[in-house]
Amino acid sequence: MPSVSTVLVVGGGTSGNAITVLLRRAGIEIDLVETEPGWNIRGSGITLQGNALRVLREIGVWDQVLEHGFPFNTLGLTAPDGTVLHIADEFPAGGADLPATLGMQRPALQRILTDAVRASGARVRLGCTVKSLTQDDTGVEVTFDDGATGRYDLVVAADGRRSATRAMIGITDRPESLGMGIWRAPAPRPAGVERSDLTYGGPCYIAGYTPTGDNSIYALLVERQRDRDSLEHLDLAAEMRRLTDGYGGHWAQIRESINDPSQVNYTVTDRMLVEGPWHRGRVVLVGDAAHCCPPTLAQGAAMALEDALVLAELLNTRDTFDEALLTEYHARRVPRVRLVVDGSVQLCRWLLDGVADADVPGLMARTMTALGERP
């Protein structure tokens, strides 16, 4: 019998949707609230490595993910002119029966997960979030911003790196900028693109692309962070095209497809790992609310999914809810998350500092080998 009967999930992103489905499987009553009326069905592309795919399979959506994604098992390293310098076999961190990596359109993944939440029987309220909460020994009283109230055995804060719930319970950790900016845009898949290719150097720190389906890719460029005010009056598509001018190979075709500014996304890199417990009483953090890092290892979604899996496993299999349960969740997650956060930040800093002899392949290989163990 599960250790809790009623749970509020705050946030309908990757971790919030995942834990909702996993807890509903054990018969726990779930309310999920998401501040975005459109449930965050947006974005360009996402790279999911084997340990993320393993969790998606356990959630029960692997077949849909495979149908809408593009699996591959190698990573290409190219020169700025497009010359392929090296093709590396990627480590199958989810096991030999799953691809090492799968690219897909981020909106497609979100639709798959939100459909699974709906099918689970969870109660979903969009355009709504928590206004305040009060805890006692047996539960959490919650007031929502639409005036409604509720009482729950547990609140799961899955409301992202700027988590308001985290602040409400007195955890003061905040994301810190690392000084890198990332451009992303979807594009048609050029013939011959069968894997992620990355170029270190040229006009940007990194230029890369990942297939996200039979007919699509997403392209990314990593440069030094800009002041957002400097982007306000730019044509983002024209600026991203300009940054690709120094790259050859498939970039010639990709460049021609970057025409719609509304499809270009610019974000900055942050780093956060909540030090100390990830809970206060009966409110617990998952995903980006507890940790975030640069996408240099492509492990952000994987870590969020693993959080959901481990916390759901403990809640679904323990007869009683107590402090030890949430302490065990934290103890199981911190070593893996710290490995990813530290490694991602190290890669970022090597690039910013121009370290020519940085052991990028070695760091990546060591990290993925460690992540091959189950969380």
Question: If you had to describe this structure to a student in words, what would you say it looks like?
Answer:
- With 375 residues, the chain is of the alpha+beta class.
- It has a domain at 6-72 and 104-175 and 271-358: 3-Layer(bba) Sandwich (FAD/NAD(P)-binding domain), CATH 3.50.50.
- Helices cover 34% and strands 29% of the residues.
- It is built from eleven helices and 20 strands.
- The strands form four sheets. Strands 6-5-14-15-16-13-17-20 form an eight-stranded mixed sheet, sandwiched between helices.
- Helix 1 packs parallel to helix 4 (106-120) and helix 1 packs parallel to helix 9.
Brief characterization of the structure:
By secondary structure, the protein is α+β, with helices and mostly antiparallel strands. It has a domain at 6-72 and 104-175 and 271-358: FAD/NAD(P)-binding domain (3-Layer(bba) Sandwich), CATH 3.50.50.
Q: What strand line-up does the widest sheet have?
A: 6-5-14-15-16-13-17-20
Number of strands: 20
- Architecture per CATH nomenclature, i.e. the level-2 architecture of the domain at 6-72 and 104-175 and 271-358: 3-Layer(bba) Sandwich
Supply the helix-strand structural class. alpha+beta
